[in-house]
Specification:
globular, 118 residues
Length: 118
């Protein structure tokens, strides 16, 4: 997603087209991952409720907030800096999301070793 956000900042038509063509791919991967996470971690009765709530938050609350905050920030510091900042935030969240499952995996391995020892 970070690359998709930063590609149009190159100023080339190719960067803009490639960035726009990646929009659907990145959106669907994120949406699918969230739905699969909910399906694995919630009971069957709550699958529909969780997905509905996720969709409402994503399309309603998040869309409204990002449009208002992004428009305000774009007016204050400019669109180039706003998109670059947004890319940095996405990159930081991606790095954070890469380390969280890894830390949980290490905890699970340590717990498994402790259980095997006993």
């Amino acid at each position: 997603m970070t690359i998709r956000i930063w590609l149009p900042l190159t100023g080339s038509i190719a960067g803009i087209f490639i960035g726009q063509s990646l929009q659907g791919v990145t959106y669907m991967i994120m949406y699918y991952s969230c739905v699969m996470f909910m399906n694995r971690n919630r009971s069957k009765e709550l699958h529909g409720t969780g997905q509905s709530l996720f969709y409402m938050v994503q399309t309603g609350l998040a869309c409204t907030f990002s449009n208002i905050a992004g428009g305000w920030l774009g007016g204050k510091i400019g669109l180039f800096k706003t998109y670059f900042l947004y890319g940095l935030v996405l990159l930081a969240v991606t790095v954070l999301c890469a380390f969280v499952p890894r830390s949980h995996l290490h905890k699970d391995i340590a717990k498994q070793k402790e259980t095997d020892f006993l």
